[in-house]
Amino acid sequence: AALTVRFLTRRFIGEYGDMEFIYSHNLTVDGREILFHIWDVPNSQGHAEEGSSEEKRIQWADSFVLVYSICDRASFNILPLKIQFIKAAKEGQTQEKVPIVIVGNKRDLHHQRAVSSEEGRLLALSLDCGFYEVSAAE
């Protein structure tokens, strides 16, 4: 949520509850006006099942940004399963590659790091995803 709000408003707000939000935002990219619809969903540790609300979100979206905290190994460890679930749901229908980006957040808290940058890059490479490390706070 902090990363989404930072993208939309350029402001940082540090604490959020576990609520879902859908944002709409216009942005000019390469001279073209683009309308983004962002479905910001808090992390759920449970496994997704067919017909679940997670399945509906996956069908709704055209691309995915999966954010983990570099200070929280558990948030990183669930990514492979989530990405496999997304790919199975999206690519199984169209045979087209679904755009997925993995983002390690909280780069400013490097002294509390539990997941190395190299681990994030290797995971993204192995799953054919993009990769970035950022700090919503900075």
Automatic annotation (TrEMBL):
First-level EC class: hydrolase
Keyword tags: GTP-binding, Hydrolase, Nucleotide-binding
GO MF annotations, alphabetized: G protein activity; GTP binding
Cited SMART domains: RAB (SM00175), RAS (SM00173)
Domain of life per record: Eukaryota
Coiled-coil segments on the chain, per record: none
EC number(s) given by UniProt: 3.6.5.2
Statement: the UniProt record of this protein carries the keyword Nucleotide-binding: yes
Record field: catalytic activity: GTP + H2O = GDP + phosphate + H(+)
InterPro entries per UniProt: P-loop_NTPase, Ras-related_GTPase, Small_GTPase
Membership in a protein family: Belongs to the small GTPase superfamily. Ras family.
Name of this chain's protein: small monomeric GTPase
Annotated organism of origin: Psilopogon haemacephalus (coppersmith barbet)
